[in-house]
Design brief:
By secondary structure, this protein is mainly alpha-helical. Helix content is 69%, strand content 4%.
């Protein structure tokens, strides 16, 4: 219990020390999701990715339907089969299941085609956005700029530091707010 108290007092002391309080740092934030949604090329890329994934999902659905039909057929005729035929049918169903799982991994897995295609198509736009962020941060002397769209979460953020409109402007995209 006393360790917690000592740690708390030490942390409070460090936070309130004049060296830490006296530093002037400019912070800014932006929302990459909002920025990307306003870039016309991003929307067409999203449509391309949606079309590709829809095709793959349809193929997966066909595989699942085929597996379901095989299982229903097997269950309906199981008592009529010899042990050898029963084992063959079970193996056939298992092979179809494994083929479907391999296909899903190939298309949507962490190293799958969807994510490589997404990275390939979005990387140039992301580089462009981050270059605009760097330009604004350097021009306006920001010390830190955070992306609120991802893992970084802020409970409170002063809108005076919101850089969304400036980034969109730097990218040549008109905004509705003035």
């Amino acid at each position: 219990m006393s360790n917690i108290r000592v740690t708390f007092i030490l942390a409070l002391f460090l936070i309130l020390s004049p060296d830490v309080v006296g530093q002037d740092q400019r912070l800014g934030y932006f929302e990459s999701d909002l920025i990307l949604e306003n870039i016309p090329e991003y929307n067409s890329i999203q449509q391309q990715l949606n079309m590709i994934s829809s095709q793959w999902e349809a193929e997966i659905q066909q595989m699942e339907s085929q597996i379901e039909r095989l299982q229903e057929d097997y269950e309906a005729k199981e008592i009529l089969y010899t042990d050898e035929i029963r084992n063959q049918r079970k193996q056939e169903i298992e092979n179809k299941i494994q083929a479907k799982e391999a296909y899903v991994a190939q298309k949507f897995g962490p190293e799958g085609e969807y994510f490589s295609r997404q990275k390939e198509l979005l990387e140039p736009i992301q580089r462009q956005v981050f270059a605009a962020v760097r330009t604004i941060a350097q021009r306006q002397n920001y010390d830190f700029v955070f992306d609120r769209s991802g893992d970084i979460y802020m409970v409170y953020a002063n809108d005076a530091y919101n850089l969304n409109d400036l980034i969109l402007e730097e990218l040549g995209i008109e905004t509705d707010t003035e």
